[in-house]
Amino acid sequence: MWPPAKASDMTRADAPVTLPVVLTVAGSDSGGGAGIQADLKTIEACGGFGTSAITSVTAQNTTGVQGQHLLPIEEIEAQIEAVTGDFDVAAVKTGMLATSEVIDLVVDHAADLPNLVVDPVMVAASGDRLLAAEAEDAYESLIAEATVVTPNADEAAVLTGRDVDDAAAAEQAGRDLVEMGADSALVKGGHVPGDAVVDTLVTEDGVTTFRHDRIDTEATHGSGCTLSSAIATQLAHGDDLPTAVGSSVDLLASAVRYNVDIGEGPGAVHHLVQARNDAAHHPTSEAVERVVSALVEADVSGLVPERGMTVAGATPYAETPDAVAAVEGRIARTMDGVRPNRGVRFGASTTVARALLTAREHDPSLRFAIDCRLTDAVEDALSSLDGTSASYDPGKRPDGVAADATAQWGVDRAFGASDDPPVAVVGREGLGTDEHAMLFGATVDAIVSRVKTVHEAVDDGA
Predict the structure, then answer these.
(1) HEC string of 381-424?
(2) Which residues pair with 70 in a beta bridge?
(3) Which residues contact residue 455 at a Cβ distance below 8 angstroms, ignoring those fewer than 6 apart?
(4) Hey, which residues does 186 pair with through a beta bridge?
(5) Per-residue pLDDT tens for 274-306?
(6) Among the entry's GO cellular component annotations, what is one (predicted)?
(7) Which CATH class for the 21-272 domain?
């Protein structure tokens, strides 16, 4: 019989999926930003199935650690054995182990702990100590079992006796840890002074560095847990070590930039930032389509450059052009008005996408950008907008900036020189049909309203 019976009238076949199992052996953070809670969120966000062995229960929030209670060693062991006895564990990470007895326990089970990522947690981000002083020496035996050990500069100094205050010292500390028996060492650069954060991965085969801009925030609670959990999960997926580390460092950079504003303290990193960003792709594409439909209906022909108009929309956590959706082939003028040449696709824009991402460095709330034809009339019409306009001189582009990056450089310069984030940015030299102004907005309504306002002002002045 067709159509088939409704789902409520039949038994449906299950559709199980297979996920790599990752085990975290660490402490619990009642505040949810670090520890087991951060590990499990990150593992799931990276496509793994998270399991756990809790070593210690902490009373903790964004302001600090108010108390901690170590579980009996036999209970910790029972958790490890329960997981490894039933699940095909593909990777393991350790966090807060608290005492030498717990460290020794993990070492004893190391043969059953593949792709072992050791995060040598000693002190919380708040400054509270999470490792007994007598346990520091015990880490040497665990490091010898590690696929990768991931200390920050302070932890690396304790483990190696070497001050880690620059890139050269980080590399040498990594070599020391490899000599202690680790397959590799990732010495994190968050505590090392400098405008950029440089993480240094050392293996027997060589050194790889991962660099990203430092984020101006104190909301780094859970950063070490998030990074080590992400690395473990990527290893569980079968990634090679440099790939696993590189993608995890990128994830953490976004998680720190788009941190979660919670509690009375600095807040926590956004463990699910990548998953949330992926989930936002379809709504963002639909939002760009709504903008295009509104501009077609309004017939903004007078604002469309000869080469076409680009309408671009970024996901809420966009960091690269492939997270910016745009009309492929731009919007073109026709005898009957304006129309998009093709559909909306992520990565379809370069110039406007990069300009939008640059604007978001100054105002992360901005989601949309449109390049318009620039004439004297259009420039005059910008004064009718609900915000300020800013300008830059393309002729002052530094020699080190490529010609195709002029708009990106100009937007950065214009936003940086403005007291309030501008809603429009133009280059003042060479006004003509080949030049353009860029309009920005945080919402569909905002960007459409601004384009219509300029278009109506130009028509009224014609």
Answers:
(1) HHHHCCCCEEEECHHHCCCCCCHHHHHHHHHHHHHHCCCCCCCE
(2) 56
(3) 298, 300, 302, 303, 381
(4) 201
(5) 999 999 999 999 999 999 999 999 999 989 988
(6) cytosol
(7) alpha beta
Q: Does domain 280-461 have CATH number 3.40.225.10?
A: yes
Helix (H, G, I), strand (E, B) or coil at 147: coil
Q: Are strands 21-29 and 49-61 parallel, antiparallel or unpaired?
A: parallel
What number is the average pLDDT over the span 407-427? 92
CA dihedral 426, 399, 209, 233 (to 10 degrees): 30
- Separation in Å, CA 270 to CA 125, 192, 217, 222, 227: 15, 22, 13, 9, 12
Cβ(297)–Cβ(349) below 8 Å:
no
**Where along the chain do its domains lie?**
21-272, 280-461
CA distance 267 to 274: 18
Going from the C-alpha of 356 to that of each of 323, 345, 433, 442, the distances in angstroms are: 11, 16, 22, 11
Where do we find the tokens 């020391």?
Answer: 176
Question: Tokens in use for 262?
Answer: 């919670």
Cis amide linkage into residue 321, ω under 30° from 0: no
Q: Which of 332, 369, 374 is nearest to 353 (CA)?
A: 369
Could you give the CA distance from residue 433 to residue 459 in angstroms, rounded to a whole number?
Answer: 17
Calpha distance 319→360 (Å, rounded): 9
The β-bridge partners of 202 are 185, 207
Q: Which two tokens stand for residue 453?
A: 């306002």
Coil, helix or strand for 266?
coil
- Find where tokens 């936002």 sit: 280
Q: pTM for this one?
A: 0.89
